[in-house]
Model the fold of this input.
Amino acid sequence: TDAVLDEIAAWQVRPLEPVYPLVFFNALRVKIRDEGLVRNKAVHIALGVRADGAKEILGLWLEQNEGAKFWLRVMNELHNRGVEDVLIAVVDGLKGFPEAILAVFPDATIQTCIVGSLKKSMLIGSAGQGGVKGRPACSGCRHLLKRPKSRICSSNDQIAGQVPVASRFRLMAAAVR
Done:
């Protein structure tokens, strides 16, 4: 296992391209066994799309929580590994996230990913608004909250199609081409 650890360490510090036209930043919550206990942790992902259209995972970081301070450290790490500019950064609605990116890449355009916004907009805040707290606002959109698959709604609340979770990044990258 030491040989694998050495290879992982080399991958984590490898030089990166100077410019990425598009980078997706996100976190995936996973359960990880740590010292005999199962804990929830966030695997932070930076997925870059190069000028030739090739996709590259710039890094994976394991952290207990997702926060703007952590992402600022990630931005500085990417800069130190050779990234000089990010043209478009796709992020979720985490408070302070755009500022963390702009502190290191001041010319970046920040695009908020709509998948998280759609999920949040489907929730009803309280039972007094015609639903149950934490339940989807429309019964036709409950599928947005299910795992391991996500679906996309059309304007008339019909299910337009199924999109496996692993394909989300590919679809988002293809949508901006």
User: Anything to note?
Assistant: The first helix runs from residue 2 to 12. The longest strand covers residues 19-34. The two ends are 40 Å apart (CA to CA). DSSP finds five helices and seven strands in the chain.
